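Ticket #4471: structure output looks truncated?

Reporter: J.K.
Steps to reproduce: submitted the chain below (374 residues) through the standard prediction queue, then opened the result file.
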Amino acid sequence: MQTRGAIIRQAPGKIEVVDLEVDDPRDNEVQVKLVGSGLCHSDDHIVTGDIPVGIYPFALGHEGAGVVTKAGANTKGLKEGDHVVFSFLPSCGHCRWCASGQQNLCDLGAGLLSGARWNDLTSYRLRLAGSDTPVGQMLGISTFCETTTVAVDSVVKVPEDVPLDVVCLLGCGVGTGWGAAVNSGGVQPGHTTIVMGVGGIGINAVQGAANAGATAIIAVDPVALKREKAQELGATHGAATMEEATELAKELTNGQGADQAIVTTGVIQADHVGQAMASIRKAGTVVVTALGNIADTTPLPVSLSDITLFQKRIQGSLFGASNPNWDILRQIELYRSGALKLDELITTTYSLDEVAAGYQDMHDGKNIRGVVRY
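Returned output as attached by the reporter:
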């Protein structure tokens, strides 16, 4: 069938909305009509070329939710009419990582940037309309398409009474930030937590730290709007710089420093990790979930003696170390109870044709999270 989607033709590139043809689902696949999609910074990393992909044109979007319109065979109980949230990382359920409760590290992730099906790197589900030109899918899903065909390993069935244009945020940004605090950072009641960068990921690290019981949460961002929003959603303090946040953390902990510093900046730099390490106490943890140019090998300005003698830890965090088939559903329950705020994260809504404008707003510091509503 024909659909429309936001693509780039090269990287660095320019986002454009074009007509596409999308295949019907095959075995283990479903077709989904989108209701909402968040504008995550990771797509911008594709546009700039910070993260190269296997094929161009390339259809963007990876944080979305919608309704199943067609189902192939062997779809694990998914059927037409089901409401689903996409997980930007698929989980097969039986590899070593899935079986040990680390679905975010599923072996299916190896082919995610190819743009093709991960079980056949020559097979695509999108084409430019009226041609045989294949179009790659962002992480196998491409949620900046009105309709998309995806593997069942990339969707989680959700209750029909939750708004899909809101819970779409659970497909990446919420889980990545929330899990960075709760799962990767190990925030506990009474902790002091620094969140470095309070955009679409960092704001949810703030919420995760609050849910886990941190009594002091310092939100660090040069943009006043973001610091203010963070304090509405659980942060106890705001700081414009890490220097200010570090001194504040020491004041609050009798000179010890923060228990965790969670790095959620829009584009990570090596010195961000160094600043975070300087802000934490002995046996504290720096959680790194931000992305930048993946080819960057700049050495980290970190003292090796700091790691050994003070037992500090640098912990990477992919999708907040989430198990999406469980975490998305429990985050829905937190949302229903009022403990996890989702509606309040959405600063501006856009049409599909306004995706490029939405990313410009992100760069201009106007959004916590923009959402495309279909």
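Triage note (M.O.): checked the attachment and the full token line is present. The chain has two domains: 2-171+341-373, 177-317.
Status: closed, working as intended.
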